[in-house]
Amino acid sequence: MTDTSVTRRGFIGAGAAAAGAGALLAADADAAQRRRRRRRTRRRRPPRTPTGADVIVVGAGFAGLTAAREIVRAGKSVIVVEARDRVGGRVWNHELPGGEQSERGGTFVGPTQNRVLALAEQVGVGIFETYTTGNNVAYIQGDRSEYSDTGPTGTAPPDPAILAELAAVVTQLNEMSKEVPVDAPWESARAREWDGQTLETWVRDNSRSERFRSLLPVATRPIFGTEARDLSLLFTLFYIAASGDERTPGTFDRNFNTRNGAQMWRFHGGSAAIATNVAAQLGARRLVLGAPVRRIEQTARGVTVRTDSHVFAGGRVIVAVPPALAGRIQYDPALPMERDQLTQRLGQGALTKVAAAYERPFWRERGLNGTALSTDHLVTATFDDSPPDGSPGVIFGFVGGDKARAYARMSDADRRARVLGDFADFFGAEARSPVEFFDTQWPNEAWSRGGPVGVHGPGTLLAYGAALRRPVGRIHWAGTETSTYWNGYMDGAVRSGERAAKEVLEA
């Protein structure tokens, strides 16, 4: 009985052991299969992007690329993370028929824009003069005129009915801007007064005729992408003061003019050639494209930058995107109140760029230089964007503010017809028959959400301007909106990248 019992127990134990051994063997087989699958997956997966660097830069526009370049030149490591599948940000080339380049975004450069000129020279991109031979065209309340920009008003139309007012208002704005410190406009003695009203309000109080006032959008729509009612007077005065450099005071004229102004030169190969060449110098291993940053975490030891598919660790981070987009990133810990409130208020301008290419620049044959200004049309301002040899001929125009919002509601066919109709009014019937028409609605660009610059409404600079450049722990801010000179321009972006890199390197 006992022997039988022991035998039965031994049999049961042996069976259990065998079952356990079988289970272990099966588990081992499954584990081995999983290891083989992982090895095969690893062989198929491309090499992983480096996940650590001294500095992480968010955004591969001119600001971010410049910052990264300066950090590398200082002997530190950097990774640039960009949401788009290209570099350049708000600077973007468009290839024309025949292979020449036009620009969908930032185009021009002028005197005192020394930092972008220096960068272009360092990366082998030359400049050439914007075409200015011949007359400008102006439409003011239905009246068409042609005039030379070599006169005292420059690019602005010398309309006898408004000439005295134009001179008085521009002179007054230039003089007021001298009281605005470019590095701290909110500290101006009259900051509360000037930031408490709009540019539109001030012009109404300091002008007499509706004909002159109708010209105001001709300036604000192309320069800011907005209406004068949305612009703080203090911000406008700062913008004028910033249209210079450390040795040369800014003026409205330099901002607005082509000849001896901000539109004086263009870049061979299109402006984006600068970004492309800087990116080539940095090398592909330092650039991660198509990776929108979702979250930035910081501790006493460093930062972690997270995208949908990558995690980057660094000592510090430079956020080089417009404040409106920087505010959409999650931060841990949360940003201070002033910085967060700033990003809620600093929206991008509404600007669309429209362009048409022709077999030749036919307007030149009529003695016109391709520049037109209009109070009456959908297109507020145009420029000759032809390559240096004039083949093909290209005209581009700005549709900004209220006009940009109207444009967005149109069908594609209506947009094309309206724009080409405007070009025909300006330059002749041949403008209706381009070899190519294209537009760029910057408010619809997911990683810009407008342009060319962030717009300060009344009260924003006074209350929150000091947070524009102030680092938040290990987070530093760059982008043309943070620049003290040429804010809103490519030069301002380059300056901001240099400044942010210096901050990080000194820290």
Q: How would you describe this structure to a colleague?
A:
- The chain is built from 18 helices and 20 strands.
- It has 507 residues and is α/β, with parallel strands linked by helices.
- α2 packs parallel to α11, α2 runs parallel beside α18 and α4 crosses α9.
- The longest helix has 43 residues.
- The radius of gyration is 29 Å and the shape is globular.
- The termini are far apart.
- 50% of the residues are buried.
- The N terminus is likely disordered.
What is the topology?
Layout: H1 2-44, E1 52-58, H2 62-73, E2 78-81, E3 93-95, E4 101-103, E5 108-109, H3 114-122, E6 127-129, E7 135-140, E8 143-147, H4 163-177, H5 191-195, H6 199-205, H7 210-213, H8 216-224, H9 233-241, H10 252-256, E9 265-267, H11 272-282, E10 287-288, E11 293-298, E12 303-307, E13 311-319, H12 323-326, E14 330-332, H13 337-345, E15 351-358, H14 362-365, E16 368-374, E17 381-384, E18 393-400, H15 402-408, H16 412-427, E19 436-441, H17 460-464, E20 475-477, H18 490-506
Parallel strand pairs: 1-2, 1-13, 2-10, 7-16, 11-14, 13-20
Antiparallel strand pairs: 3-4, 5-9, 6-9, 7-8, 11-12, 12-13, 15-18, 15-19, 16-17, 17-18
